Amino acid sequence: MTERPVDRRAERKAERKAERSEPRRHKQRETRLDTPRELRRQLVRRPAMSDDTFGRFAEAFARFMGTARFILWMTAVVVVWVIWNLAAPDAWRFDEFPFIFLTLALSLQASYAAPLILLAQNRQEQRDRVIAEQDRRVAAQSQADMEFLAREMASLRMALGEVATRDFLRSELRSLLEELERDESDEGGPEPDARPDSAESPRPT
Q: Is 125:114 a contact under the CB 8 Å cutoff?
């Protein structure tokens, strides 16, 4: 029997295919859920802050900015700033007439205040949405309860229509009493005449 010539090209293709499939299998093994992941330690810890805590801070800040107290304090700071930089000696002035530093501080405050106010508004919208959903559920439940009570009242009215009332019982009892009195009066009247006695037959002599 003659041996078949070995195809070297086919063997090389098979080896290359196997080498290409190995990293894919390795990746599939890494992405499986039953294999634990390798935890990498972070050299620098990132500052972690709860969203709820930051949201409460944003709401408190926005609430404080919307009060007259904040406006008065801000007005007082600006007035003192301007008067100090205009009336103080040149050596003590830290912001000359164009008040560039004051403008920068106010713009920085506005740039931080706007996102905080938007965050507070978003939280309020979410809260209002939850409250509206709860009110809708309560309204639907109340409507269902009212419909149930209306059906129960209708059924009670229909049932009461078939029940004897007090006035009906009184009228029936009164009519029965009248019939009894009438029967008694008929029985207690003059008795009919007795039949005459039959004539005695003559005795034989």
A: no
Q: Is 58 exposed, middle or buried (0-12, 13-18, 19+ CB in 10 A)?
A: buried
3-state secondary structure of 89: coil
Reduced to 3 states, what is the DSSP secondary structure of residue 163?
A: coil
Place of tokens 């620098």: 44
For CA atoms 31, 36, 40, 46, the dihedral sign is positive
Q: Within 10 A of 59 (CB to CB), how many other CB atoms are there?
A: 18
**pLDDT single digits (tens) 106-131:** 999 999 999 989 988 998 899 999 99
Q: Letter for the amino acid at 196?
A: P
- Give the global pTM: 0.47
Helices within the chain (DSSP H only): 8-31, 51-65, 68-87, 100-161, 166-187
pLDDT at 151 (0 to 100)? 92
Non-local (6+) Cβ contacts of 102 within 8 A are 78, 81, 82, 95
Residue 60 has pLDDT above 80, yes or no: yes
- 44 burial via Cβ count (<10 Å: 0-12, 13-18, 19+): exposed
Length of the chain: 205
Tell the residue number behind the tokens 């949201």, with chain if given.
55
Task: Output the CA angle 23-27-29, nearest 5 degrees.
Answer: 115
Dist CA 167 CA 156 (whole Å): 19
